[in-house]
């Protein structure tokens, strides 16, 4: 008999995601101990040797709840038992949320910093993340509710730098079935059922209502929409990069008149990229900030400047938009 269908589907997804990585490279599975990342880690342990890759694991202890250190130690033992090597456990301190970010964002920032540090020390080429189709659908709905624009609605990419997300076409129920078939006992993070978090409310309340009122298949439709929007956004970002390079002088200033002649979808992307290049944190740069920069181009009536996150200032002088840091 072959493997359970859910196990086979997850293994195939991981194999396809790893395709093209050079033999001998180290790939880490980021694992919290939950069903999604546990099923992912098991699939990596099975697939890596056949592809000539080294499979390892990494877990992050956020220290946000009692017993987190013990849970991290348990995950480390499970990953080692699967045959992954090396297995790394990283402890982080989650900095309190700022004015524009909540506790979820603060934990995510700390987690990715820890993953980057652990992967660098281990010499890993890639890090596998266990985001599923259900996570993608939730991300799209949250982006829609926040009015975050096309890039946010495009959701999570299958590949972003060294991060790979093999399970974006896999349902959460499949990862649980795979764990059960493999005799793996997942850990259910209490935060994943806490309605204080917007994502949990979307998962347990909003999506079920949509399924009930609009019919089944909502999660898959949202994920499909994300994939379509991602292709569009990638194309627009590419065009914006070309125009930004053409318009910028040696100091990163942009010619306002030429910028104003661009379509809005391109112009606003050029402005956003220029602000980020000047030192503005991407996660703190909102649609309002971009709109204020755009007003310096399209609604110019002598206004002096607009202040952006990270101490960056955008102002119009002598027909150019200037970006200065340290204000």
Counting structural domains, the number is 2
Output the CATH class name of the largest domain.
Answer: Alpha Beta
Helicity range of the residues? 40-55%
> What's the tally of helices?
12
Distance between the termini: 66 Å
Overall shape: it is: elongated
What topology, given as strand order, has the largest sheet?
3-2-1-4-6-5
Provide the CATH superfamily of the largest domain.
Answer: HUPs
Give the C-alpha Rg: 22 Å
Number of strands: 10
Summed over residues and divided by their number, the pLDDT gives a mean of 91
Strand content of the residues, in percent?
5-15%
Structural class: alpha/beta
Provide the fold topology.
Layout: H1 5-18, E1 26-30, H2 35-50, E2 54-61, H3 68-81, E3 87-91, H4 103-122, E4 126-128, H5 133-146, H6 150-153, E5 159-160, E6 163-164, H7 172-182, H8 198-214, H9 218-247, E7 254-255, H10 256-260, H11 264-277, H12 287-298, E8 305-308, E9 312-317, E10 320-324
Parallel strand pairs: 1-2, 1-4, 2-3, 4-6
Antiparallel strand pairs: 5-6, 7-10, 8-9, 9-10
Helix pairs in contact: 1-2, 1-7, 2-7, 5-8, 5-9, 9-11, 11-12
